[in-house]
Design a protein that fits this description.
Chain A: This is Sugar ABC transporter permease. Chain A: It comes from Bifidobacterium callitrichidarum. The complex is a heterodimer of chains A (about 290) and B (about 300). Chain A is mainly α and about 290 residues long. In chain A, about 70% of the residues lie in helices and about 0% in strands. Chain A contains 13 helices and no strands. Chain A is globular, with a radius of gyration of 24 Å. Chain B has one domain: Orthogonal Bundle (MetI-like fold), CATH 1.10.3720.10. Helices cover about 75% and strands about 0% of the residues of chain B. In chain B, α2 packs across α14, α11 packs antiparallel against α14 and α13 packs antiparallel against α14. Chain B is flat and about 75 Å long. Classes of the chains: A mainly alpha (about 290), B mainly alpha (about 300). The interface between A and B is large, with 103 and 99 residues.
Amino acid sequence: MSSATFGQVKTNERVTVNKKSPLGEIIHTILAVIILIIFLGVPFWLLIVTAGKSQAEAISPNMSLPSHWQLLENFKTVLIDGKMIQAFFGSVIVTVPSVLLTLICGSMAAWILARRTTKPMAIVYALSISGLILPPAVVTVMMLLKIIGLSGTAPGMVGVYVGIYLSTVIFFVTGFIRTIPVSLEEAARIDGAGPARIFFTIILPLLGPTLATATILVTLYIWNDVFYSLFILSGKMNLLPLNLYNVASAGLYLNNWHLIFAYIILMSLPLLAIFAFTQSKIISGITGGAVK
Amino acid sequence: MAKPTSTSRHTILIKQNYPLRFLIPAIAFLLVFFFIPTVLNFIYAFTNWSAFSKTISFNGFDNFITLFTSGTLLRDLRITLLYAIFVGIFQNVFGLALAVFLEKDTFINRLSRVLFFVPVIMSALAVGYIWQAILKSDGALNQILSAFSGHTVEIAWLGNINWTLLIVASIHGWKWMGLAMLIYLAGLKTIDPDVIEAATIDGASGSQLFWKIKFPLLAPAFTFNVATSLLGSMNGFDIVQATTQGGPGGSTEILNIFIWRTFGQGLYSQSTTMSLVLFVMVMIIAVPVIYLLRRREAKIL
């Protein structure tokens, strides 16, 4: 394999059909650049220039450069008024345990579901992955959390996310474990290893690529979710998307595009930074793991 | 006493080696946070639960009748279904077109793939606000069009009761096309180059090559992308909320927008009823679609 580069996908290197002429290459490159400018350049240019403007200039968003850049002042305003620091830690406190619990509980269950192939287990499996398709009952889950005293709290939010995304992990991991030969486990079993040791020392390490794909998808969904957190947290916790919603819907900030966009840039930075450093792994992880 | 047969010993071994206690944490989470709320959803949809009455009592099909006679039920169902179809089309057409266009591993193609993935990792709410700023009547797009056409353009992209739904669905497609592109790319990379070579030697044209060979072989990627785009859009909320909030005149009010709006008004039972409607709708539409797509895969591969 060549060294990791932009968005490289494992490929059959000997595709030589339809080899393009140098002229074709140039036209292709020009086309690609035009598509990039129209589909990504325009929205992101607007995002950045508007975030650097004053309120008066940003009132009707346009593509022109700000007469003078006040990006940092706008960042400071939203950091304080949008409670971004608390929101960042709120998002971390909710997302990290949700993802970890989903992965661990999901993989453990998937191991059993993949290896025990009786009729009742098939039914349990079908029920466990039903959440892949069925929408969560968001109103009654909020009521249930109120009854058990977890509404508006991080543990309640974590529970809801784990309940929603376990199906995704169980589905991916069960499919993968079925391809791992049982003989790998049997060698350790003869040496006297119990189920816990076999799972954590043999199965779990093999799940790397599948869990990586699941982690990416589940993290994206949870970190960016606003629908479920609107119901569950009802304003009692600061999360990044929730505070964006509040900043953008509050009468005080209505049409304050410079602040909304400054907020969007800041809130997107953590995931963008992670993505920038891991993009080749993320892209090959998704392309390798999702469709088998 | 019968001797333990080899199958029963096998069963005992399976039970020892794969203990059910490993299932407990997952089952517990699913039960408390997924299945019990779903069951409650079926119960509370038939009550008068609201912020305005202290007691909760059953009222039969009253909620359904209210929603049906006001026209909201059928309108929101129709809008959600149309939204899902439009998103399914946009996300897959954009994604497949990008995958085919960026298939070769050149520098510009790899760079483009990475950049098209940026909207995927952004919050859908943020994406919605960006596009609202572009599409509002004094927004960026109309200003660009004005500059090119030489006269003032004031198209209400987000204010038309007939086709704003289409615009919002295309924003949804834009947000997720990077993921669809990657899945299709992965599919394209698994196609055996010998097959393509053989077809080329047999004189297949470019479009024949694509529609008769490549596209059918992309069946698993197609299933995944159609399923995720349908499910994602039927469960959609953020992008619609950020661009139109269900307007104008309720013409983009998908079910989750209604659920959030009536919940905010304290009409919990109506909200719950619509949540049940969404549940049933997904069952009726997504399950058969996914079944058919899987069968199509099995036939092709």
